Amino acid sequence: MMQRPNWDDFRFVLAVARTGSVSGAARHLGVNHATVLRRVAAIEARLGVELFEKSVRGYDISPENLRLIEAAREVETAVNAVERLARAGEAPLAGVIRVTSTDSFCHKILPPLLARLSQRERDLSFELLSNNAHLDLSRLHADVTVRPTYKLPDDLVGDMAAQMAFGFYAASPDVPADHWLGLTGAIGRSPVAQKLREALERRKTTFTAAADSFLSLQSLAEAGLGRVMLPAFLGNGSAGLVQVEPVLEVPPVPIYVASHADLADAPRLRLARARISTALEAEQEQLLGGR
User: Fold this and answer.
1) Considering just the CA atoms, what is the radius of gyration of the chain in Å?
2) Which residues span the domain enclosing 47?
3) Domain HTH lysR-type: where (predicted)?
4) What predicted TM-score, i.e. pTM, was given to this entire model?
């Protein structure tokens, strides 16, 4: 009969999952490298599964073990909740939530929002992962994604929390109407960017510079290099930019708060998404361009 692992075994597995390496887990837990290796190997042997894929990048969660790792996280939350229940009679959202979003959201929108959540939920902490190309949630690189998009991909499940408007800006109205900044990389592949490119190509526009980040585009526009399309919360929030005549009509973009489809029903992640969605709703005016 297989020996049943105790909770302490799972602490080592979760530490490796969170840090992506044995050395990182050792530092997090305050033990040595060999102890982490031994404890992870022992629980893998007892469970009869290989929990991690080892590579030069570190330790990744095997896709087929995503649910197992999330179940361990649920156990962690439940164990930690026992004392809180005894003290307060109610267990708030707790633990580490990994949130990924675009660089502009990670820079302007999410920090104050997550700070307010952390103040209300004292046992909750966040890892904020900025990536315009979007992280692969199937590898458990993140728990929740805050994603501006007209349609979620099939591997994500979530709800629309708010909408984001775009605007057109320049350092001054004197910036030539045919001098524009281009969108490249991940943001350049978005439907909004493609429509902008088509509209500007019809006008035989000169692209004076380009960037794969709205934050970089904002800085380039503030330096006077050209006109630019930006999320309204960036453009209207900049003291160095003024609005200019739009070259096309851009419908507001929905902002989804989602998780990987395999983990979307996990109670911890459902609650985290609900809290983040409610906080984003409160930012709707700013996201639509209110100063």
Assistant:
1) 22
2) 7-66
3) 5-62
4) 0.68
